């Protein structure tokens, strides 16, 4: 989930938006209906009439001898639709609930049977049917198993899994930075399973200390490769679904100095995979013959900074999947090779390619590939980087991209489009308009129900004053930045008000987006505008805004430098253009990467920023994980000075007595380690810099565990801000 995802404000916003946007839709195979979980049942709706049918009843989901149905977290159907695999009783692994129990409901026999009997409770991961529906494979305790559904026989396909030799799933850093979790794939003919094996035996444990849960403190080890450390070596293997020896693929290069974030079946006899070099600035596509293990390179993409992988942007099928066209003779690839992020249609041998989204704009994410009707649906925003709209383009590259989102709906959109391209679940919001949802007919973008019609609802709204105002500023360096501002209630431009900046600043996310939640502070108790604060944010170079490759890659080897200067110069320009800002009352806050930016802004630009609240910050870039930090900064053995010069630790001595700093960190943070806090505290002590510090015992990166934690954190934030950056007009 990368460092941004626990920036508190955006965690709150993103989770609430996800609940709005993601309706739990699972499309029917023909695309003319969808399924979802409702009231402990699985319901199917037909389109366009939205007629409801109970597909799987609560009674069918109730195990024999039990009075209550299973709590369904997710489900999938076999390819013939006659069996359902139910995921329940889940448990968290790092960030998500990816362990649990699985049951198979046979719709013909009306039987509900648990798979993986004899395995520990809630230990099964990523269970899935074989294509022929006769078996289910899953990971349990880092080994892969295949279970015959007719006989109940469980066959271990790997037996060497340990806490450090991981089969069919991934170590901490692959999950965190590549979104890799499910680590095995059924072959199309149901005969074999291909899987990753990650060897983390040489990755050192980072030891966190639990001082509160027993009389004697104990260590909590986390396998964590720090920047500059070699990655966990990998292997890609293929094993028969009936068991036996694994055939290992002969991947080129050093597996302890490269990565494979993607692997799929190309056909029943061949795998396709993407391999990154250590610096992640070259991607090689490989075919592997599963019988001989021999690999062949067929396509390469490279960048002077870094190459984005499929997990870097929104794609309809997540990081998994290889998007084949023309019966497997071609595939889709995303690249920034012409200065913009575009979709390319590439021949199977990699020798010919054609850009199908031509123009000076970025593809933000792919929503649906509708090969039958020759369309790719994608999100983009050529004219305003803070917004997102649906476009479609001919898959054969003939013609220009066509905007589908209505011109009257100005803001941010999200779509889930049916496999046949005829229907869509659509959500819309902007910073001043709460999320609205509707079911659509495509391509005319017409609501199925008049009562849900977003266009009509927007037309009927009163034209009240916009609370969140967007702006653009050009800094003295000539860089144009997007920003937003929320002014105090009863604003008087002849008076002066304190300003509070919300920042992030790193390549994992942007803070200036025209969508619901922008302009709200999830840490402040009360209403900042009512209390008399200006609340604002600007978006620096290096964030993933759809402004072209040069914008995004400007931060390469300069985290903590170029982004911090942009944020500071953006604030300086804002002050010069708005006399109502009280420059003696300027505060900044951020979480994770935003915490790092907060510290750097205070330390590097003390004339501009007077008060800062930094949460879970990376104080020393040499303390973070290798995949993230090396992707954006290089390898410290080659350019250590860049890591040092961009770290808040190197500038802590510049904190002034007239500035106010509150630093907050959880001691159980397995992402940005508490080590960062102690290093920073030591440096501030060394130079006799006075500040306020709060450590939350055993809390993780999100600082939410434990009774009263969120209330305490919110109170602390609000009290410190009001004391050191008092609200109200002067």
UniProtKB/TrEMBL annotation:
Segments crossing the lipid bilayer: none
Pfam families the UniProt entry points to: DPPIV_N (PF00930), Peptidase_S9 (PF00326)
A GO BP annotation: proteolysis
Gene3D superfamilies: alpha/beta hydrolase, Dipeptidylpeptidase IV, N-terminal domain
Keyword annotations: Signal
Origin: domain of life: Bacteria
Residues of the Peptidase S9 prolyl oligopeptidase catalytic domain: 528-724
Example of a GO MF term: serine-type peptidase activity
Signal peptide range: 1-19
Ranges where the Dipeptidylpeptidase IV N-terminal domain occurs: 78-434
SUPFAM superfamilies the record matches: alpha/beta-Hydrolases, DPP6 N-terminal domain-like
PANTHER family (alphabetical): DIPEPTIDYL PEPTIDASE 9, PROTEASE FAMILY S9B,C DIPEPTIDYL-PEPTIDASE IV-RELATED
Name of the protein this chain belongs to: S9 family peptidase
